[in-house]
Specification:
The chain is of the alpha+beta class. It has four helices and eight strands, in the order αβββββββαβαα. Helices cover 36% and strands 17% of the residues. Strand 3 and strand 4 form a beta hairpin.
């Protein structure tokens, strides 16, 4: 039983160790985020898993907007893609691209793309800019977040990480777990996921054991 328990726990421990190593390199925890909307399509789709790093981690440090000189090209466009969470918003963190930085009191619509605006500064709640920060947008959206009312001008301290690359479809498990936690609670979800992992690991170990047992007699004959 001890050996079987070790066999079941080994994959989980390996995954945890990989996550810890990635987090140490990236400087962010968790080092991956699951995408729950299509606002960054087509490069990043719902269900993708995005690797992230801290905003000051070498060599990815700093925040650069799409319109700034030397903007990095990641996830299908220019400018850093960041994870931010406006306080008192009541929604999940947002993964969107930085357009450009703004300063408090600035009419930032004067240097914005008119195609991503719905009206002039007087029609936008976040204009003039109420504080220093960033104008942001989702690649698949038709407006800046601040024009569409998705988010106010994003303060730098609201940004928790920046995206490096996306892996298609690997985020569905995380999306499902988050949905289960929201519906059933953390403890029932943990018990359910743990039970499923144990059953899956048990069947896998049993299957591998039977395959090994079937191959053993033929191997012994070959040795004779």
């Amino acid at each position: 039983m001890t050996r079987n328990a070790s066999d079941l726990l080994a994959p989980a421990v390996a995954v945890l160790l990989v996550a810890v190593v990635v987090a140490a390199v990236a400087g962010a925890w968790p080092p991956f985020v699951a995408v729950e909307s299509g606002s960054m399509a087509p490069e990043v789709e719902r269900g993708d898993l995005v690797a992230v790093t801290s905003t000051d981690r070498f060599p990815w440090g700093g925040l650069v907007g799409a319109t700034e000189p030397g903007a990095p090209t990641r996830l299908g466009g220019a400018g850093d893609v960041v994870v931010f969470n406006p306080p008192n918003d009541g929604h999940r963190p947002i993964l969107h691209r930085i357009a450009f930085p703004v300063t408090a009191g600035e009419d930032w619509t004067e240097r914005a793309d008119p195609a991503l605006l719905d009206g002039d500064c007087s029609a936008i709640a976040s204009c003039p800019a109420p504080h220093d920060g960033y104008v942001t947008y989702g690649d698949a959206n038709g407006e800046y977040d601040q024009s569409a009312g998705i988010a106010p001008v994003v303060r730098e301290e609201w940004i928790t990480a920046k995206a490096l690359f996306a892996v298609p479809d690997l985020g569905w498990f995380r999306v499902g777990v988050d949905a289960a936690v929201a519906r059933a609670g953390l403890l029932p979800t943990a018990v359910g996921v743990g039970g499923l992992a144990a059953v899956t690991g048990g069947f896998g170990a049993l299957l591998l054991g039977r395959i090994a047992a079937r191959r053993r007699p033929s191997d012994e004959r070959d040795e004779r």
